[in-house]
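User: Is it possible to get a 3D structure for a protein together with its bound compound? The compound here is protoporphyrin IX containing FE. I've pasted both below.
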Amino acid sequence: MGITKPDDRQAVFGEIMSRITTGASAAKIDVGLSLEDISAEVTRNLAPGRNGEVLLIPAHTTKQSTTTSFLDRLGLGKIVKSMNIIAGAIVGLFTSSSAFATTASSHTYVTNGNAESWLALGIILASIATAWTMNYHTPKVRVYGTLLAASGCFAVTAWFLFFVLGTGILEEPKPNQTPMDSAKPAFLWLQAAVAFLAGLLLVRAAFLQRKNVETLDLPSANEQDRYGRVSRLLHWTIAILFISLIPMGIFTSMIPEDTSFRNDYYIVHKTIGVTVFLLILVRLAWNWHSKRPALDASLKPWERKLAHGVHISLYGMMIAFPITGYVMTSMHGFGTYIFAWEVPPFLDKSDAYVIWGTFHKYLLPYLLYMILGAHILGALKHHFVDKHQNAFKRMVS
Ligand code: HEM
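Assistant: Yes, that's possible. Here is the predicted structure of the complex:
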């Protein structure tokens, strides 16, 4: 058959497929490929039809990487070549705004210390990179994405164990405003433990993912049964940032007033909070432009209602948290940081900040724990109990 180069995979598989489709009898193919390699490729290209006959899946859904450069062998070649436009735009926007703010020191609302806004930018970029690589089309890159997500979880645990505990603030926090505040150390311990467990699960997932050879060909727009690239990028970026704001916010609210790094925490928390707000507006606009996939058809009517309710509530939370945080801050007479800019309060100082604070600091967080718990338990039940593995795949692979 004239195939001599062991790496000429596409030609080999083309030949195999053509022999199968034309019904040719077996022939010796000396290509230096392992039997597993060949049979995996053949299996991926064939699917049983409704009546048991064998169907060929169009090539575009099972593209095999034929790249050879060093980056490509690492699975990173296409990252360099095909920069996702949306990610590029987001990165460009944040980088330029932060860089501009840090250099334009004569601007009225620019803060003096800028290191914290770079930290906020770093966290945002790391979240985008994780969201992007987790849904990248080359399988190897998706493994790196899962490992990046795992390192994010471990970073939260390490921050808690090596920084937060070391400050002694958990033992001597800012005076409690309500009796509920005394539960904050326990919440931080719990969140650090959950982050550690999530990190371990993600490492295990990455280990299993190594065997996956399928490329993920995703269009930008959503499809009838799965989310497209833009929705996935926005979903995971927002989710990572949103979740990171919870322990960060709790710790920020515990820092005594005379602590040197107190303001740094406010800068990072508010900057990321405003960013989540802007990204959720983009997400809503995108949902309007590109219809979301229908819920899994196998869901029972009550499960559909619950899933729908949980989704709506999560959107509500992601809008309500930043708005209440901003109004509370403004009515208390403080500005809001967006990277290195300090935007002055647009609202008059008022004692009503207590009401907004009650929402931002108590009602919304407790509601969130319940909704997020339902969302995660629902997804896990769907995956492990109902064995509808399609549910995760709609958003991750
Ligand atoms: C999605 C966005 C946000 C989330 C999830 C979030 C979450 C939280 C949480 C859980 C706390 C801890 C509350 C406590 O236990 O006392 C907190 C505190 C705080 N948040 Fe946010 N927040 C967000 C956005 C914002 C924004 C945009 C601002 C202001 C512009 C803001 C300002 C504050 C302030 C000032 C505190 C500390 C209050 C204190 O010192 O007691 N937050 N946030």
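The pocket of protoporphyrin IX containing FE is lined by residues 184, 242, 245-246, 249-250, 252-253, 266, 269-270, 273-274, 276, 318, 321-322, 325-326, 329, 336, 360-361, 365 (CB under 6 Å). The chain has 13 helices and four strands.
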